[in-house]
Amino acid sequence: MKSRLLHAVVCAVAFSASTFAAAQGAYPSQPVRLVVPFAPGGSTDVLARAVADGLRKELGQSVVVENRAGAGGLIGTEAVARAEPDGYTLGMATVSTMAVNPLLYGTQRVDPARQLMPVASVATVPVVWMVNPAFPAQDFPQFLAELRAHPGKYSFGSPGVGSLGHLNLAAMNADLKVDVLHVPYRGMGPALTAAVGGEVQVQQDQYASAQSLIKAGKLRAIAVSAPARLEGMPALPTLAELGYPQLNALGQTWFGLVAPAGTPDAVVRTLNQAVGRALADPALVQRLAALGAQPDGGTPEAFAQRIAQTLAANRKIIETAGIKLDE
Predict the structure, then answer these.
(1) Can you identify the CATH homologous superfamily of domain 126-250?
(2) What's the pTM value of the predicted model, to 2 decimals?
């Protein structure tokens, strides 16, 4: 699948730029639709709206966010895959939609490697690892020692079977050689509530939504999956610093833009460059920072490589842990 994904970026643009320009005129000449495959108000939606505002300035056209939630992101992603490849429909891509769903649901409905083209990586959001305040550990070394001393005693709440939280737990159990039990909930909200109430003792969440609980003393942060220490929590070490670079990389949640396969290369490049300029705008950088997000950018090929690497890593986790949706 890795080779097919990279091949799609380079070779799937069957339309020539000159033919497209002659038939359609200068791009963009009308509003662009940005499909978010999750409900309004979530981190993907908030991030998409910030990026849409930046693209409006760069493209000189409206960028309308459309939420198409359902089936773990499949419905919205499917809508993008089936859209006309003319540059006027884009999709918000996440680790779940591009590098988890194809492994758990198969590719009958959506095959990202065949039906979607990476446009640009947008941002990376760090994930904070936390424990209930009653957990007998103040830092990560103590946390690890407690887990190893009592295998099977503690539990972790995820937003559901096959979620990123579930995969991160499976990777943590394998990498740290511990045994923390998985407890799936119907969404991140109930999982966080369970951690705050002590129903489960171990939790992880994106920094943007976790920071208020940490600052209120309802959960205790012990480590973060991030390229560097967080400005808002400078004393919190990264998992890479603690000696677990692979777990650190897996825990980082990335977001990007994709287009239907067959979108003209000239249009993809125009969009990619617009994203790059938008991410250089201090106003957008500040909006992303408020979400705990770090701007990415880069070429379509670089984003394709990142997707392929995440897909390979997640496949290994799923196969090793035996994760299935009917658990």
Answers:
(1) Periplasmic binding protein-like II (3.40.190.10)
(2) 0.86
